[in-house]
# Entry
Amino acid sequence: MRSILRITKTELRILFYSPVAWLVLIVFALQAGIAFCANFTDELRSQALGYALYTPTASVFCGLGGVVTQMLDYLYLYIPLLTMGLMSRELGSGSIKLLYSSPVSNMQIIAGKYLSMAIYSLGFVLVLLLQAALGLFAIKDVEITAVLVAVLGLYLTVCAYAAIGLFMSTITRYQVVAAIGTLVVLAVLNFIGRVGQDVDFVRDLTFWLSISGRSQTFMYGMVNSADLLYFLLVIGLFLTLSVVRLQGERIRSSAFSGAWRYCVVIGIVLGLGYISSRPRMIHYYDGTSNKRNTLAQESQDVVNHLDGGLTLTTYVNIFEENAYIGMPSERNWDMERFEKFIRFKPEIEFRYVYYYKQVPNQLSDERIAGLNDRQRLERICDLNDYDIDMFRPYDEIAGTVDLSGENYRFVRVFEREENGRRAFLRLYEDPMRHPSETEIATALKTLYARSPRVGFVIGHDERSIDNYGDRGYGVFTRENTFRQSLINTGFKVEKVSLTKPVDSEIDVLLISDMRKPFSLDEMENYRAYIARGGNLIVLGEPKRQDAMNPLVAPFGLRFTADPLVRPTSEFLADLVVGHYTPDFGLRSKDVATAIRYKKCLTAVGTCGVEQIADAGYDMVDCVVTDSIGVWNERSTRNFVDEMPTLDSYCGEIEKRYSLVKYLTRPVGDREQRIFVVGDSDCIAGRELVATRNGISASNFSLIQGMFKLLSYGEFPVEPTRERPSDDEICLTQDDSVWIKILYEWLIPGALLLCGIVILMKRRNQ
# Structure
């Protein structure tokens, strides 16, 4: 040990007597200071403008744009400059012969030199910790653990780079060659994750070898044992290779003997790495305050219900635009999307089925135009170097799964071995595209829990779930590619006729914009459904009172006879803005979020919902209008050419109107829940996507709030996490001046001064 420490002291003395070592530290401190001050200033500016801060700890230090993450990208430039002379200097000067003749082993030589680099690298850590020290005082409830985990990831990366640089320094006497060789090895380790991804066993080995992205989990405050062991194994690998290299030089062994030793060492490390990366072997530590890198408790509860085997089969149609996601070369990255769930259920089996079938959105390429399906398959496989034998005609798999309802798009199917139940998991046409924790957990829950059935009443010219246009309900009910549609949030939708009693399996009945009233038999079946405690949504519309008011009269309600107006210079008068109430927000997470971000509900051509009697229901106003500027318009009907004015003499009343009411009552051992809405358009296709200047609308919050309550909180599975408490910076913008002086000038300047003093002392000696 003394020999190792003696070598370490000597190398540290050489390092700190070198201008290069000081230059690297100074440049690192300057870059880190600039990045830190920029991030900190941005957060101070946002806070001064009145924006609510969300985890400034992550924004400043770690996370996607944190200072630690940014500095991680520059490390490959620094380390080769520091390691290039560790052994090359000894080889070039001939001093290696003195080491060989001394009572020092090869392992001690390598260990001593590497330890000097590990100690020097603590200088990078110290610079970052000085920045973290400010966070302890400046950021309320700073997530210091997450910061330390990120710094640990950076330090492990530096140590891995140093081990690689040390090895490269042992194979050449030229320092420049050693530096370039280190860069080449780092480039190879970044690229190798793409090598052999079409071959199952090779895929896992090369993917494990890849150093690209290994530190990312650390940057988000998560310690992953697979990544931690990766760095330790890489360090051990290159240090061992360095010892083997010196041993070969010392005893002048044959090239075959040296190659054999290299292969044995590499084989052992690859084996250990492969074993450590298996899902069952991985352990995690989440350093964030609200455990945002871990499945929420709701999702964990879902996974814990899934005893036995679970298979996730991905069906890939080569003719579909998303086919590349499921190709063998992308498989490891594809499986990483489910890592949070694999952590709690490592026995999930992943399967991929490849087929070909014409689809409505088939890739249009002149290179495959005019060809039949088989010829198109051959051409695509030839162009992309795919194995054509992977793909089967759809007819061969049709007996296993019916994908016609998915339009043969890229789709995944969860299947539980215990009961054979299936659940579809889709891609969505939004910026995120892939399913999030919510969609995955919801799909998994349907494997053991009963999906609520929503019946849409037909037969009276109601809004249709087959209509995907402006006035239809197809988008929020059955659109496969819409993330929040009912079929993607755990519900089943169907059409219901009240000409016969409502099926006892129907959980929610929805009636919207009836143009014709119920017959006597239909009304009797409707009342029977209400009497048994069935949940209900009734959506009215102006001019439909004759048909709709009898439906809400048993609840002591009625729809106003006249449409509501809100005249403005920007929009038509019948565009009414409703505000979600705090009482509704207490019952719905989605509505609470909408309230927090000052979202509203827009309704075009709406009537109010009024209480006219006490029918024994507890009643809550969910959405209300302003008390000023909104009234029931009795005279004007042409809102395009006329601007209505308030006329109190004809019965127009300016007041706060209720647009949505929520009713509850106990029925047997359950609570009956009913929503009455004054407008049918507010949840139709157009209003769900409409944008208007000056109006921040979130109509879908109403849909989410209603159906979450109507399913008694069962669907969808919504992960709930406490909002991180580090939401305030206890400084002002004026303080950014001295922060810049400290971290951009004083700390780099202090390092510069220390370097000058030490180098001058060395020169004088």
